[in-house]
Design a protein that fits this description.
The protein contains ten helices and 28 strands. It is of the alpha+beta class and 579 residues long. The protein folds into five domains: 46 residues, no CATH class; 107 residues, Nucleic acid-binding proteins (OB fold (Dihydrolipoamide Acetyltransferase, E2P), Beta Barrel), CATH 2.40.50.140; 98 residues, Nucleic acid-binding proteins (OB fold (Dihydrolipoamide Acetyltransferase, E2P), Beta Barrel); 110 residues, Nucleic acid-binding proteins (OB fold (Dihydrolipoamide Acetyltransferase, E2P)), CATH 2.40.50; 121 residues, OB fold (Dihydrolipoamide Acetyltransferase, E2P) (Beta Barrel). The strands form five sheets. The protein has a seven-stranded mixed β-sheet. A five-stranded mixed barrel has the order 1-2-3-5-4. Strand 27 and strand 28 form a beta hairpin. Helix 1 packs parallel to helix 3 and helix 2 packs across helix 3. The longest helix is centred in the C-terminal third of the chain and has 17 residues. It is globular and about 90 Å long.
Length: 579
């Protein structure tokens, strides 16, 4: 049981030589200093610590009867012995009332299970000073049991709590060895937590920053594989600092990761502040990283991270520049590639785009460390970045010439306008490149009949046109800036056209917003895919009365296929000549 105030005061008086009145005065001053955010006992403990006194020197070791399986959320005064399985680093944070705080944690186990123990503020010092290591025994005294992330029980150490390292009356042999159970990548499922994985990095993508209320967050992504499969690894905030330290082909261990589903409903592994990444080794040639037979395009699907792909370039559209969300300039290069089984669109980014700008039609390429995504019409796209490896005309790459069927198919609608010539009231079809994705609130609550914004008060839903209605539906909004080389224009997409562009429904977008807490989160998730993409957009040109600028209100959108468009133009030209 924790000491009462009178007991703490008596101990301080006995050990310090100060009078009781002096000690009580110091306790009151400490409470005022902390603006009431501490109990009397907590303030007394802080006074004792400032006087460099050990209050617990005379305290008998409590009788320990609890095991991990006995713990229930809400229990206080909990004392038990644990074997340290993992130690997570100390991190700092800003208190709401001002000032800086510290927090760290360990994973501990006994014969009945495992649990996280969270150390706050001064309690983090033994971890900072590396006073104990994995495999040591900790006696946790006077902890509190709480429910943490994903409803997992945790023990928290606060004022009045303490630990004993390797207590003399405990034998480490009484604690079973805890083997970390590794999860194969192919076994990842939505909702899994405390996941441990050993894998090799096969591609690095980029680090992004974003606003989280009054603070800034960061996120990095990589591609990883083991002998069972491949997936994306997402590193959040402090963990994203690993991005610069790691290289392709490094072997790593992920501890206490969790699984989320990506926008293609495929599992991906996430690592947040409660997890840990360990760099095991760096290898020049991981096993099976360079298969002798590259994968055929027809066998690839969105979400794959193929080890190698062999293709022939059938079109190089040249490097284009665009402005990223952070205001920096980006570069993008679109290829059309094919093998004997299929045709695919490929996008190279940044330095990779510059390196491949001079690749000629007919060049054979061996692509390694790339990833596959779904395009606007859910067609396969291959994405190449600085960490991908591209070998031109490798001598051992055997690939047949692509069939003509992969080079030309279909007759899409050819854009009939250029932006420099459009006027208010025109119904147009234009082809342009996405140069900006505008961040804004992505969803509004609409009337299912007339699509006007509804008002929700108490249990009533009111549409300004239809009156009281039984339910509303989330309606997705997207705003882009499109450039066709002659002019640029803001394009607005609402409802079905926005869903087609984003590859998600209004309900999906609303769920993403509720989960993340960010009203523009759906935009963030598709922005990198859309920037630099060429689109066919059909709709009406309107004048925005506030900006006095022309805007395109989009009715339909599709991804532009330059080869098909060129073939259609050539066909039209031949018909005109024949006339």
């Amino acid at each position: 049981m924790p000491l009462k105030l009178a007991e703490i005061v008596d101990l301080i008086v006995d050990k310090s030589g100060k009078s009781k009145d002096e000690i009580l005065q110091m306790i009151e001053e400490k409470k005022k200093e902390l603006d009431g955010y501490v109990t009397d006992e907590g303030a007394a403990s802080l006074v004792a610590r400032e006087l460099d006194l050990d209050l617990f020197e005379r305290q008998p070791t409590p009788e320990l009867k609890l095991s991990i399986r006995d713990l229930v959320a809400g229990m206080t005064g909990v004392s038990l012995n644990l074997k340290v399985v993992r130690i997570f680093p100390v991190r700092t944070f800003q208190r709401k009332q001002g000032g800086e705080g510290k927090v760290a944690s360990i994973m501990g186990s006994d014969s009945t299970g495992s649990i996280r123990v969270t150390f706050w503020n001064d309690h983090t010092k033994p971890i900072e000073d590396q006073e104990f290591d994995e495999g040591d025994i900790l006696r946790v005294i006077n902890g509190r049991v709480r429910t943490g992330l994903r409803d997992q029980l945790e023990i928290h150490l606060g004022s009045g709590s303490r630990i004993m390292i390797n207590p003399p009356d405990v034998d480490v042999k009484d604690f079973p060895e805890v083997a970390v159970t590794l999860t194969p990548l192919k076994s990842l499922e939505a909702g899994m937590s405390d996941v441990h994985v050993e894998c090799v990095i096969i591609a690095k993508y980029r680090v992004s920053t974003f606003s989280r209320g009054d603070s800034e967050g960061s996120v990095a992504s990589l591609a990883i594989r083991d002998e069972t499969g491949r997936t994306r690894l997402v590193l959040w905030d402090e963990q994203s600092e690993w991005f610069q330290k790691l290289s392709v082909n490094d072997n790593i261990r992920i501890e206490s990761g969790y699984v989320r589903m990506d926008r293609n409903n495929e599992p991906e592994l996430h690592l947040g502040r409660r997890g840990q990444l360990r760099q095991l080794s760096a290898t020049d040639q991981p096993p099976e990283s360079r298969p002798s037979e590259p994968q055929a395009l027809k066998d690839l699907t969105a979400g794959d991270f193929p080890s190698a792909v062999g293709v022939v370039v059938i079109e190089n559209q040249g490097v284009r520049t665009f402005t990223r969300r952070d205001g920096q300039e980006g570069k993008r290069l679109v290829f059309i590639l094919a093998d004997e089984t299929a045709k695919v669109r490929a996008v190279a980014w940044g330095q990779a785009a510059e390196d491949l700008a001079d690749v000629e039609v007919g060049t054979k390429l061996l692509l390694e460390g790339v990833n596959c995504r779904a395009g606007l019409r859910q067609e396969l796209e291959i994405h190449i970045n600085e960490s991908s490896q591209v070998t031109r005309n490798p001598p051992n790459l055997k690939i047949k010439s692509p069939s003509n069927d992969f080079i030309s198919s279909g007759k899409p609608e050819v854009p009939d306008q250029i932006l420099a010539n459009v006027t208010e009231g025109n119904f147009v079809t234009v082809r342009g490149t996405v140069v900006q994705v505008i961040h804004q609130k992505s969803v509004y609550d609409s009337c299912p009949k007339c699509f006007k914004k509804v008002t929700i008060s108490n249990s009533s839903i009111t549409c300004p046109k239809c009156g009281t209605i039984p339910k509303f539906e989330p309606r997705l909004i997207a705003k882009l800036v499109i450039d066709d080389g002659t002019e640029n224009i803001r394009a607005s997409l609402i409802g079905a056209s926005a869903e087609k562009l984003f590859g998600m429904s209004g309900e999906d977008a609303k769920s993403i917003i509720e989960e993340s807490g960010n009203e523009d989160e759906p935009v963030r998730r598709v922005e990198d895919t859309l920037l630099g993409k060429e689109l066919n957009l059909s709709g009406r040109i309107n004048l925005n009365n506030f900006s006095n600028q022309l805007e395109l209100s989009v009715n339909d959108v599709s991804e532009a296929d330059p080869i098909e468009t060129a073939n259609q133009l050539l066909s039209d030209l031949k018909r005109k000549v024949q006339r």
